[in-house]
From TrEMBL:
Location of the DNA-directed DNA polymerase family B exonuclease domain: 194-310
GO MF terms held by the record: nucleic acid binding
Pfam families documented for this protein: DNA_pol_B_exo1 (PF03104)
Species of origin: Rhizophagus clarus
Protein name: DNA-directed DNA polymerase family B exonuclease domain-containing protein
Gene3D superfamilies: Ribonuclease H-like superfamily/Ribonuclease H
Signal peptide extent: none
Length: 345
C-alpha cells in the first residue's frame, strides 16, 4: 500500500545519462504516468483490473470538470479523474438531450431573454444566472460529487492509445461512495490518500539585450533556456520523477532526468511532450500565471509551435485561433485595494 512514509522513491544518488531531443519523433527516456503507476504500484492496479474485467463498480476521484458542447446538438458532461492506483481517467455522461442554444451579447440581454421565455412557459436547459458553466448546475441538481470519491457503475470503457481510461455512463450511475468503502481494508488506504498526481514546474529565462529588464517573450533576444518539473502524489511530498529540460550542454544531476534540446523550439516541444506523458491532475508553479505561462505561451506562438504544443498537452485539440481566443485570457482580480493582473493558459 502507498503511504506518505515511503521515502527514496527517486534514487537521489544515481545519476542518469543525459538524454537528447532534436524536435523530431517521440521523446525517449521520459516515463509516462502509467509507467510511474507501475513502478510505484500501491497494490490497487490488480484490484482495478479485476473490477474492470468483471464490470464491477470502480472508484473515481474527480480532478477536473468541463462542458463538452462544441459540434454537438446535445449536452455532454466531461469529468477527468485519477483512479485508485493513480491512472488517468475521463468520464462522459452519455444521455444526450437535444436543445436550441441561444447566445446573447451580455448578461443583461440574457436576463431579459430568460424572463421572456419563462413568461410564455418555455422550459430552459440552463437558467442559472449566477453560474458561468452549466456543469455546476448539473452537479448541484443531480448531486454529483465533484471533489470527493465517486463510484462508477454500468459503464462502457476503453483504454485509449495515450494510456487513459475512457468511461461512458449515465449520470444516474455516477454516485458518491459509501462509508463502507472507506472502512474496507482492501482499499481504504488508497481512498484516504488518493493518487492525484501533482506537477510542480519552473522556467529560467535570459535576455541578451542587457538592459536590466525581466526577459520578455516578444523579443527574439529573450529566451527560455531551462524548464524543470517534479511530479509527486498529492499526499506525499517525495518526488516520483524529476526532469530538467535545457537547450545548452549540461552535466546531469543525481536523481534528475536531464534532456538537452537542440534549440528553444525543441525545448518547448519537449515540455509539451513531457506534459502529455506525465498527464498531471494538478500543476503548481511559482508566479506561473504572472510570468511562466505567459512567457511560454507567447514565445511558442511567436515561434509557431503554440498550436502543436496545446494539442499535445490537452485532451481536447483546438485551432490556433480558438486557443488564442478562448484558452489564453487576461484577467484582473481585485485584491484589497489593489489590482492583481494575471495571464494564464
Amino acid at each position: 500500500m502507498h503511504t506518505p512514509t515511503i521515502s527514496n522513491q527517486t534514487d537521489c544518488t544515481r545519476t542518469a545519462p543525459t538524454l537528447r531531443y532534436d524536435g523530431a519523433g517521440p521523446l525517449v527516456g521520459i516515463p509516462s504516468r502509467n509507467d510511474i503507476v507501475a513502478e510505484f504500484d500501491n497494490g490497487m492496479t490488480a484490484i482495478l483490473q479485476q473490477s474492470l474485467s468483471g464490470k464491477q463498480p470502480i472508484h473515481f476521484m474527480p480532478t477536473e470538470v468541463s462542458d463538452d458542447i462544441e459540434g454537438y446538438s446535445s449536452y455532454i458532461l466531461r469529468i477527468t479523474s485519477s483512479l485508485i492506483n493513480g491512472q488517468k481517467a475521463v468520464g462522459y455522461h452519455t444521455e444526450k438531450k437535444a436543445y436550441i442554444r441561444v447566445r446573447t451579447w451580455n448578461h443583461f440581454d440574457r436576463y431579459n431573454a430568460l424572463k421572456a421565455v419563462r413568461g410564455v412557459g418555455i422550459h430552459t436547459a440552463s437558467d442559472d444566472l449566477n453560474c458561468q458553466y452549466y456543469y455546476r448546475k448539473v452537479a448541484r441538481e443531480e448531486r454529483l460529487p465533484l471533489s470527493s470519491w465517486a463510484v462508477l457503475s454500468n459503464y462502457l470503457y476503453e483504454f485509449t492509445p495515450d494510456g487513459t481510461y475512457l468511461f461512458r455512463l449515465s449520470v444516474d450511475n455516477y454516485n458518491p461512495i459509501s462509508e463502507d468503502d472507506y472502512n474496507n481494508p482492501l482499499f481504504s488506504s488508497a481512498l484516504t490518500r488518493d493518487r492525484t498526481l501533482i506537477l510542480t514546474w519552473d522556467i529560467e529565462t535570459y535576455s541578451s539585450r542587457k538592459i536590466g529588464e525581466v526577459p520578455n517573450a516578444k523579443y527574439d533576444e529573450d529566451k527560455v533556456f531551462m524548464i524543470c518539473m517534479i511530479v509527486h502524489w498529492k499526499d506525499d511530498p517525495e518526488p516520483l520523477k524529476q526532469i530538467c529540460l535545457v537547450d545548452v550542454e549540461t552535466a546531469p544531476e543525481p536523481g534528475w532526468i536531464t534532456i538537452v534540446c537542440g534549440s528553444q523550439i525543441d525545448l518547448l516541444k519537449a515540455f509539451a511532450l513531457c506534459w502529455k506523458l506525465l498527464a498531471p491532475d494538478i500543476h503548481i508553479g511559482f508566479n506561473d500565471s504572472q510570468y511562466d505561462w505567459r512567457f511560454i505561451v507567447e514565445k511558442a506562438n511567436k515561434l509557431g509551435v503554440l498550436e502543436w504544443m496545446f494539442n499535445h498537452m490537452s485532451f481536447k485539440p483546438s485551432s490556433l485561433e480558438k486557443i488564442i481566443k478562448w484558452e489564453y485570457r487576461y484577467n484582473m482580480i481585485k485584491v484589497n485595494d489593489g489590482k492583481f493582473h494575471s495571464k494564464h493558459l
